[in-house]
Amino acid sequence: MADKALAGRFRGRGNPLQWWHGVVLGLVVAWLPGPATVVFIYWLPLLLLYVLEPKNEGYRATAALFFVIAAMTHPVRRIWDASGDWDTCTDVLLDPRNLIMDWGAVALAWLVSELTVIGLRLYRAQAQAAAIRRLQDRARVLKEEWGFEPIAPLPEEKTS
Amino acid sequence: MSGTDNLSGQHNDASAELRINGRFQVLRETSLPPIGGAAAFVATDPLAPGMGYAALAPDDVSARLEQYEAFRHPALMPVLAHDRLEGAPWILTLRPSGPSLASLSGPWRESQIVNSVIRPVASILMQAQQLGLTLRNLRPDNLYPGVIAQEVLVGPLGITPPAFLQPLVFESLSSAVCSPAARGYGSIVDDVFSLGVVILTLCLGKAPLEGLSDEDILRRRFELGTPQAYLRDQPVPAGLVSLLQAMLSDDPSQRPAPVDLVNMETSKLFSVRREKFTRQALPVGPYMVRSRRALAWAATRRPEEFVDLLRCRQVDAWLKKDLHESALSEDIAAAGIELVRTGGVDTDGGALRRIVHTLDADAPLYGGGQWFWPEALPTMLALEAAGRNPAASKGSCMAIATQVLASETDYVSWAGLLGSQLRQLGQEARRTGQKGAARIRRLIYDGNIWQRCLSPLCLSRRLVVASEALKALDASMAGRDVPAATAVRSGLIDEQMRAFLESHAVRMGFHPRSALTTGEMPLWLQDFALLAWLQHRSADSPPLPGLAAVTFPLLNGELKIWQARSERERRATELRKASEGGILHEMLDLVVNTIALRQDRIAGQTAQHEFEAIESQLLHQKTFMPNVDADTRRLAAFVTMSSGIGLSIVSCVYEMLH
């Protein structure tokens, strides 16, 4: 059932991989083997994120792409300055700081998205608790003024 | 009269001077002998110091006082003015120039009687007849020597219930059988009869049948007929015999009209058709009955014996054979058969009453063991309530009134005075809009604006003004503690006070039903509403702190019908303030306010709904962490994406600058 729905989603979107993607990729690898390798290596965590993340939160991979772009500006400039020769690409690839930056950028993207969600949920829980408190206050005022029968005690607040 | 000793209490606080109509000063220290049965005091007019006025303090004023006040005649002591001073009625009249005729000894001469008594009094009677009034106060102690041409002066009218003080001998049989209170206004022929007895008294120098008890007098009069009983073997001037025989006739239609008496001359002859008396007497118990009238009377005195005679067919046989009344005999026989068929007789029952009415159509109504005119019922009730009707056992008048009003449909068809009086009484009772005993009590006050309040609180003060009664009530309440249970059961005021105040309030436009809120108000609150209304509407409404203090806890308890607590507390505070001020209607408005109460109810319902809504909302409220929904995701995507774009732009810019 879930597979079907998943397949449906892909069908609806249209298969993102077309035959000319393969041709372009092959040409790029043939023409610029260094930068292609760099991009491939650098985009690996993105791929990992895309594969691992829940399918309904596709924005994370996209957002992480911008973080990776931000992390890649310096190595890309070095490769650009060296006209994309293989040695520079290898240097860039073998520089652990760049890799750490790359993985860190993806991690940061993931962290930002997670923190946003958590922050928003906390804020909402707070607002809801405040609303409940307001209602309880109102109910108490009404009860004091009009003297109804006591209301059922509320369950203790829990935070997940 | 009892008014004299009642007033002694007032002498203590007599510092305030009394002025009738603000002009005639009443000197309460100088009392006169009672005039017409009412306590009398000297009154002076500062504008005309020489005139001799008398101020009367009557206990019971007739409902027709205004009519009597407008009735002037040279031979009648006029009601010059009336006023309500300190809440009690005062009547101004002329001071008589000498003692009443009762104290004049010696028989009068015939011409003296004709000129001084018959002509002037007949002239009064004629004028009264034209006005539709009756005097009912012709007796020697109410006749005074006049100033003009030696004519007598008749005492002022309207200062007692009709014929209340008339001794039995001075009353015609149709009124003599009743107790004094039950005599009613009667008709002008009753006055003619009284005048006849006055004449006879003046001729004889003493009242006829003097020394006999009332019962013996009645018996003699019924057995012999009044003219015979009064005139037999008496030294009456020959010229007056036929006149007296006519005037004292037991048949009202045989008495001369006032117009015949106005031109009275000595030795004028009057012819009278003698009443039928049988040779053979019918013994009913100890009574030897010789006439229809006597039979009716004896039947009420000895109902058991009478019914026995009726069963043995002796009554109708006697009526037919001795009295030659065959039609009547058949009626009575039929009634007797009916009576026997229904089984036995109850002396209060309508059967006996109907037989008596058939026998004597001129007689008053018989019921509850006594004779009475229906129009006198309010007076009877009043005197019973005041404890001044010793003839009747306690509560009997109430029982009679209940019976008469309940079986009113029986009488609607009755002809004559009796029927019309009964119909009018029934109408008055219906007009009160009350039920049961309250209705009967209201009759006392509704028919007579001058009826003093009969509540034990102010009986002796002769109060006829509602605001004064309120003051008396307040004074009696001050410092007293009315237990809530008592107030709830029997109200705040006694029944007489309630009837008195209600009657006055209704006259001023109070509608007990419409003034009340929805639903049934407790009795004490109805009372309070009445008192508050009266206090509010009386021109000189004094604060009533005593009443306010007594009712404050009760009213405070009544505030619990208000749902809103703040409203309740506000009202309680204001109620306390109003009760300290003694303003009852403000207190009432705080407690009984239909519109505000309805608003309170509506607000209460709204609050209840809101409360229930909140309650259900709270029950269904999820108190744990909210789920990650599309909104959250959108916001997270936006934040992450924009921060990523921003970061990459910053990174690009940084890279370009270095």
From TrEMBL, chain A:
Keywords: Membrane, Transmembrane, Transmembrane helix
Transmembrane segment boundaries: 19-52, 100-123
Protein's name according to its UniProt entry: Uncharacterized protein
Species assigned in the record: Brytella acorum
Lineage of producing organism: Bacteria, Pseudomonadati, Pseudomonadota, Alphaproteobacteria, Acetobacterales
UniProtKB/TrEMBL annotation, chain B:
Domain Protein kinase stretches: 1-270
GO MF, any single term: protein kinase activity
Protein name stated in the entry: Protein kinase domain-containing protein
InterPro entries for this protein: Kinase-like_dom_sf, Prot_kinase_dom
